[in-house]
TrEMBL record:
Designated name of the protein: D-alanine--D-alanine ligase
Localization: Cytoplasm
Gene name in the database record: ddl
Sequence positions that bind ATP: 122, 166-168, 174-175, 204-213, 299-300
Pathway: Cell wall biogenesis; peptidoglycan biosynthesis; Glycan biosynthesis
Domain ATP-grasp, residue spans: 126-333
């Protein structure tokens, strides 16, 4: 029997376009003899687009306004074996869609409400992972209200971390809204930008040296496995949006060019983080490796990582012997096995 899959893409976050790219890859790569896939693109306004508009959005990479209310379509989603919510960022990767699907009783790929929401919020993630002893950079939380009522206070706190530091919306991805602050004169703009995108902002100390960016894929539910460690290299101040999505700017190295013990440590820490956050299905756990000191610091956990055929997560499992099509099939199986 073919599995009927509802593939959700797009969504209301700043990562709408990234999600459309991932969904195009999944659609193109899923073995037709095993899967019957219906894509539904969610517009930036949160409306679920009907088939013709969905096809147009996937083809052009842009979606028109219109469509149905989310709840209406979810209620009629009975008949699907599983939903693949290939959505990044708020209203997709943060537990909201996961809650809707849980209420509707439809199995879905990836983490549930708890794992999704805690992993989406960089502050909550850091708090939970600190509790299980996972090494991370020093950080602070700032609320939009603090910034509106006492901006100097927010700045005074932040400089205690030392320059440069990072200012990030707590709930976003693809480096959207992230600034590396090199000096006092850059603070205003960085906080304005981050607070324009989120009520909660995290201020992070930079690693002691420019870090090596290493990532691990995790696959499974309560007995997850870790992929080999991969590395991204690029010629930029940090891994910003342009560096991530301009073709040919970043290079992927699998396995990562780091000592074997560091890689083993990273894989163990990634599994520990996945379990501590109650993740399920898949996650890409990102680390900083500081070659000068040998430090390994966890950066973040992405519960719905980029999923084009050239994205890191599928490439890591390809290196472990699982093709893109097999990986998606495994994710659907894991969705059906949950609970
Ligand atoms: P993703 O697209 O992976 O979800 P994101 O938007 O959640 O990314 P981060 O991974 O938190 O953003 O940060 C983006 C990049 O900024 C990192 O890959 C790294 O290059 C740089 N960076 C962020 N925080 C730090 C830090 N504390 N020290 C050094 N570099 C950092
Ligand atoms: Mg992220
Ligand atoms: Mg992300
Ligand atoms: Mg990241």
């Amino acid at each position: 029997m073919k599995k009927r899959i509802l593939l959700l893409a797009g969504g209301q976050s700043g990562e709408h376009e990234v999600s459309l790219m991932s969904a195009r890859s999944v659609l193109g790569a899923l073995p037709r003899e095993r899967f019957d896939v219906t894509p539904v693109v969610i517009s930036k306004q949160g409306r679920w687009l009907p088939p013709t508009e969905t096809t147009r959005a996937l083809e052009t990479g842009k979606s028109a306004p219109g469509g149905d209310l989310v709840l209406h379509r979810a209620a009629s989603a009975e008949g699907y074996d599983a939903v693949f919510p290939l959505l990044h960022g708020p209203m997709g990767e943060d537990g909201t869609i996961q809650g809707l699907l849980t209420l509707a009783g439809i199995p879905f790929v990836g983490s549930g409400v708890l794992g999704s929401s805690v992993s989406m919020d960089k502050v909550m993630t850091k708090q939970v992972l600190a509790a299980v002893g996972i090494p991370q950079v020093a950080w602070q939380l700032a609320l939009r209200r603090d910034w509106q009522t006492n901006p100097q206070g927010v700045k005074d706190e932040a400089v205690k971390l030392g320059f440069p530091f990072f200012v990030k919306p707590a709930n976003l991805g693809s480096s959207v809204g992230i600034s590396k602050v090199h000096g006092a004169e850059e603070m205003e703009k960085a906080f304005e930008l981050a607070f324009s995108l989120d009520r909660r902002v995290i201020v992070e100390a930079m690693t002691s040296h420019k870090p090596r960016e290493v990532e691990v894929g995790i696959l499974g539910n309560d007995a997850p496995i870790a992929s080999p460690v991969g590395e991204l290299s690029f010629d930029a101040d940090f891994y910003d949006y342009e560096t991530k999505y301009t073709e040919g700017v970043a290079q992927m190295h699998i396995p990562a060019r780091i000592p074997r013990e560091a890689a083993e440590n990273i894989r163990e820490l990634a599994l520990k983080a996945f379990k501590a956050l109650d993740c399920a299905g898949l996650a890409r756990v990102d680390f900083f490796y500081v070659a000068e000191t040998g430090e390994v610091l966890l950066n973040e956990v992405n519960t719905m990582p980029g999923f084009t055929t050239t994205s890191m997560y599928p490439k890591l499992f390809e290196a472990a012997g699982l093709s893109y099509g097999e990986l998606v099939a495994r994710l659907v199986e894991l969705a059906l096995e949950k609970r």
